[in-house]
Amino acid sequence: MIAHRESAELAKQLFADTCAKQSIEPDSLTVHADRGSSMTSKSVAFLLSDLGVTKSHSRPHVSNDNPYSESQFRTMKYRPGFPQRFGSIQDARAFATEFFRWYNEDHHHSGISLLTPAVLHHGLAPIVIEKRQAVLDAAYLVHPERFVKHPPKSPLAPSHAWINKPPTTSDDTQ
Question: What are 57's strand-pairing partners?
Fold first, then answer.
């Protein structure tokens, strides 16, 4: 969402619309946010609680402790076509619409096995990985000498993504 200002009401609208649009089940999502007034407001806290969304906050006075957001911002700033300045809010919205379509549907992310976020989100990773493996197997059959140690293996999709991975307990290892 791109708006003229930040407010608790806009944050509330964004979360409600997104949870409905993405069919997010209660108790299945954690939102990591900064400590701005919108994200710490009671109205947003109550909404997130009603939606079954867990929230966490950045450390006080630390704006860069969400590596996913920081990485996305860097990708955006260095993307061809990112302007020095937007002419209007409509220009910013048009840029963001195209950027996020590309980022989620076309851009292959190294942190998620060179898959797109859309492929992971929609559960298509096993199909994509299977097709990749078929291509690798065919390449190996034609030129096994190119693969010195062993046949190539397509990386698997990550099962989880963490900002701060919870410590493992002895129950987790069983």
Answer: 33
Verdict on whether the full-model pTM lies above 0.90? no
The structural domains of the chain, ordered by start, are 6-63 (3.30.420.10)
Please answer whether residues 44 and 12 qualify as being in contact, where contact means their C-beta atoms are separated by less than 8 angstroms: yes
Average pLDDT, 10 consecutive residues per value, the chain (174 residues): 88 87 84 74 81 76 69 87 93 94 93 92 95 97 93 91 69 52
Between helices 67-77 and 89-105, what is the axis angle to 10°? 110
Q: Which helix (H) or strand (E) holds 131?
A: helix 125-142
Query: How far apart, in whole angstroms, are the C-alpha atoms of residue 113 and residue 156?
Result: 7
**Cα(39)–Cα(56) distance, rounded to whole angstroms?**
10
C-beta of residue 157 within 8 angstroms of C-beta of residue 132: no
